[in-house]
Amino acid sequence: MSGCGRASGPSAGFAGRSNAELARFLPVLADYPGLSWDVTLTVGASKYPAGLDVYPADAPVEPSGCGDIPFQRSDRIAASSEGFVPNGVAGDSGRASVRIMRDRPGADLIAESVDWAKRCHDFRVIYPGSGPQDPATAFPTAVSLLPSEKVDGNEVTRIHLTENREHRDQAEGSRESVVLLARVRGLVLVAVRHDSGRSGDDILSLTAKRLAADRQVSKPLSDKADTTYLSGRTDKEMQQLLPSALDVASEWTVRQSTPIVGERSGEGGRSDTTPSDCDRVPFGSDGWRPDTDRDFRQIAAVTAIREADQRTVSESVQLGIEKLGTSVIDETTFWAKQCASHTKAGHPVTVELAPATQLDGIDVTTVHVKGDSTNRIDDTTSLLRVRGVLVIVTPALPGKGSAVAQKTVENLRHAAFDTPSGPVYRGPYDRPPGEMKFPAPSAEATDALARVAKGNLVNPEQFHFGGYQPGDAKTRSPDYLHFRSPTGSIVCTWRRYALYCDVPHGTYPRTPKPVDLEGNWSDSIVNFGWDGIANGIATTDPIVYAESNALPYGSTIRLEEGPYPTECLMERDGLTCVEYSKRTGMHLSRDDLTPLVATEALAKDSRTEPK
Fold first, then answer.
1. What is the pLDDT of residues 483-539, one digit of tens each?
2. Quick one: which H or E segment has residue 237?
3. Is 260 exposed, middle or buried (0-12, 13-18, 19+ CB in 10 A)?
4. How big is the chain by its Cα radius of gyration, in Å?
5. Cα 391 to Cα 46, 71, 221, 299, 433, distances in angstroms
């Protein structure tokens, strides 16, 4: 397998397999690393673009001829697995996806993609205006061809994308994405990652291994139903039992998901329900994660979605583990009786407890929550317990649509693992390696941090321009800033809320690569941001831009305004940065990395930036 070059011989026979057959090699939720993902497996074309979003599809593109993006050709996609990291506040905070694609007859999709990347470095989508009050708008993306690399011995072509439009739908996260391409068995694998570490590389490698070995995804199922408890299995083991698009009718899209990681208390706030105790629905979710202040921990969920009669129809199943000594089903029965008639936000709500039923001999509890014409509440939910696992089904059983609920219960009943079970859960708040502790406040640190506001405040415009790879033409990114010391010994990139500086020849003590860390460790990178200072970071791709403009000695550059004002001062003895609201900062040079804490509140630099 190689980054370019077409396959021939017996392996090329894989290209003759159906899209549904090829989809069985793709990763599912259980294969994704980490705790929180939404994963959708699709047979045929995916609705998600691979890296570049050109909308509408016929929008004008510059340079001429760059509108045909080879790795985005929907008619060449056999199947895809799209993974997104939900953040619960503003959409998605990361992406790792992989798709299986076919070459056009007589063409090489990877070679075409490399040629596209070379021709389309300054890619722009043009949205024509309607007049003087609505001028034409260009959405630019900088395209860079990264050096190819080996992933488990396979050559992978890498294309780096930096989305540089002025205003983004979501300000959080970086602007970069990486598209990875590799060939195996006469097919092309295309992976995309954004703010997800090496997750894209990992699922690309997994898919390549499965194709090379002709080994499809399989579930740990037995022909015989079992009754032993599954509550001691790991979350990843349980996620293997979720149905996918391959288990339902073709008109349904199926998303497998895990809850957002976090261990907060409830959202708080005043109840708008009378009686107030009816506000807490035992199986429901009022906060930003599904099991906040509930008596169960959600493991995963599966949701089937389809369009019918110009509306979206969905069915969902949640799997959870109840807290020791509690019963969500009993709590739901009590809640339904106590809150049979109540009000929410001043509107009447009724709760009906349906007659008990069974599914495959398992007791099913069903409730119907109904409002009036003003709040339009009309929801049904079934709850059952299968081998110690809480199953929550919405709408209630018996479902007549996608059959995801029946398939989930069937898989739970027939699950058979060949390893001993045991509780496995790791907390989500491990501190990053390289984290530096702030020292006690000092007068010297106070003076050093206060001096930042006295430097020559620069116009930031030229520092919005940077080139990702050495030799790349500099392109403008509105909320990134790139600068270097006049000698080039310190090179920095500000990526909204966090500063990354590279000191490749630094002599200060470095943090060695943690023994349990997989992937790349950059000990020359210093990170200064919300979480403090990190001496060394784990990063898959270069995080500091290679091409930038020099910040003259005696100059102060403003990185962030608002509630977290941040500035840096470049001097001959190094770079001093301060976050005024926290009274913290750092001094960085070739031979020094020192965290700084002021003894008193620092006056924010109130000067107006020059234009």
1. 999 999 999 999 877 899 999 999 999 999 887 676 688 999 999 986 789 999 887
2. helix 235-239
3. buried
4. 27
5. 30, 39, 18, 10, 38
The amino acid at residue 568 is C
Which residues form the domain of 76?
Answer: 10-213
Instruction: List, in sequence order, every beta strand (DSSP E) within 412-565.
Output: 435-436, 456-457, 465-466, 475-476, 480-484, 491-495, 498-502, 521-529, 532-538, 549-550, 555-560
Report the C-alpha gap between 120 and 193 in whole angstroms.
20
Angle at Cα 66 formed by Cα 62 and Cα 70, nearest 5°? 155
Instruction: Answer yes or no: pTM beyond 0.85.
Output: no
Residues 314 and 205 in one domain: no
Are 405 and 444 in a shared domain?
Answer: no
Position 264 scores a pLDDT of 36
| Same-domain pairing of 444 and 591 | yes
Tokens 């509550």 belong to: 231
* H/E run at residue 417: none
Calculate the CA 428 to chain-centre distance. Answer: 15
Residue type, 441: P
**Tens of pLDDT, residues 128-148:** 777 787 787 888 889 999 999
Phi-psi region of 376 (alpha: psi -120 to 50; beta: other; left: phi over 0): left
Residues contacting residue 215 through CB under 8 Å, at least 6 positions apart: 25, 209
Number of domains in the chain: 3
What is the sign, positive or negative, of the torsion defined by CA atoms of 129, 131, 134, 138? positive
- Distance of alpha carbon 72 from alpha carbon 77, whole angstroms: 8
- Domain shared by 19 and 71, yes or no: yes
Cα separation, 600 vs 446, whole angstroms:
7
Same domain, 341 and 241: yes
Nearest CA to 500 out of 575, 428, 609 is that of 575
CA distance 33 to 518: 12
Proportion of the chain above pLDDT 90, given as a percent = 54
Contacts of 368 (CB under 8 A, 6+ apart): 351, 352, 354, 379, 380, 396
